[in-house]
Amino acid sequence: MDSSSALSQPNFYDFLNRMRHPASADLVRAIKSFIVSFSFHATDADNDSRKLQDFLVTMETTIKEHPLWVHASHEELDSAIEGLEKYVMTKLFNRTFASSSEDVKADLDVSEKIRLLQHFIRPDHLDVPRVLHNEASWLFAAKELQKINTFKAPREKLLCIMNCCRIINNLLLNISMSSNYVPAGADDFLPVLIYVTIKANPPQLHSNLKFIQLFRRNSKLVSEVEYYLTNLISAETFITNINASSLSMEESEFEKNMQLAKLANEETAARHGSILQLSGDDALTTRRHGKEIHVNLEGQPRYIMVKK
Amino acid sequence: MATSGNNIKNAKLVLLGDVGTGKSSLVLRFVKGQFVEFQESTIGAAFFSQTLAVNDQTVKFEIWDTAGQERYHSLAPMYYRGAAAAIIVYDITNSATFTRAKKWVQELQAQGNPSTIMALAGNKADLLEARQVSAEATQTYAQENGLFFMETSAKTATNVNDIFYEIAKRLLQSQPLQNPQGMILTDRPAARSVNTTSCCS
Description:
By secondary structure, chain A is mainly alpha-helical. Chain A has helices at about 5, 10-20, 25-35, 45-65, 75-90, 95, 100-115, 135-145, 155-180, 185-200, 205-215, 225-240, 250-280; strands spanning about 285-290, 290-295.
């Protein structure tokens, strides 16, 4: 992958150091007032996104002409904007990430769907050719996706996705070189990515994808990076809409699998619930970006297994 | 990059076509066969980039492959959105893949950007004995639908460079380099908006 812009490590401390310099007082003022300006309005994802993108473009021009960056190279300037994006979005994170109740619901829905699919989906259902089966590589790729909530900055979240795609990419390239297998491009890549995403069940998948699209600098969401991001977005869409026909399964078989999966998950949840109760907690909790989410056990529909 | 962006036109090209039509073989043949000094190309599993010089101008193709399985068909709009060009690939030895190709053409005409340059590639043209789709009928179909059509062979390289060269030529004709509107350089402010109904829901 050639996207050096996505791979190079911008020096965040260099950015912070320059901001501490007395000559940057005007920049610091601009940044602070930008951050404060968010508290004057109710959260509105599209509007917030536009504001941030405009701000980054304006600041890029300002920094280019600023005395502190007079002799700066293209890379140093780029690194400064990366630092700015990271700083601002970390400060605005709580306001902008998973900020609407629709986002929270979409996150729960996709995660719940994946928890059911995990019980019965096999690579064949998605057209992953047998020659590409490689549990070890898939596990590494899934681990990268699972890291996504370790970071708050859009660039670093995006990097988790790129790393996951890179592992799959390498797997496909290696297999086409080491065996007689003719590479089939996206016919292979997308099914593997979908399978890996189901294995990973990445935390807050919907909100993470939305956050990256809204708040990663537009000029960086191009070319190869944009392609791989689009693939994960389409994986999410596919997973959300999975039904019997999208897995080439009989309707009755799909329903039966889903119900068995629900039952199994409920049993696990009930077991966890009793353990948590012993420790003085009455709900199953899952980590999501420092906040705790309470899964209401009573709220889940109950199913009775029908014996055939 | 060694060359400044001024003479390079970036063009997103999307590949559509059924499984087994050789979409990626076609692209690999093109990407591996080109050599432009100081220009890097990308050979990934599903994303490719390659530059092509046309007279004194250069087009950098960013090639987006799509999954051809029927079950992934509905995801295609996310990939062809904003594409400057599309190659719709079928296999001349398999008439079902041609039927599918015609579905893509229809869909792009209905939903895609009207300025997208569409090319129809009848691949596996080296397998003449097994032919199921006639070149003449396809030519008529292509003319009627305003596409350009070539029979290609990723195996023998027949017409592979030609189809990309023809697309590059048409891109430069329709959007000359002098026109800043037609260029996508490194910066693309405000070009992206999140369509929550189609990509995030």
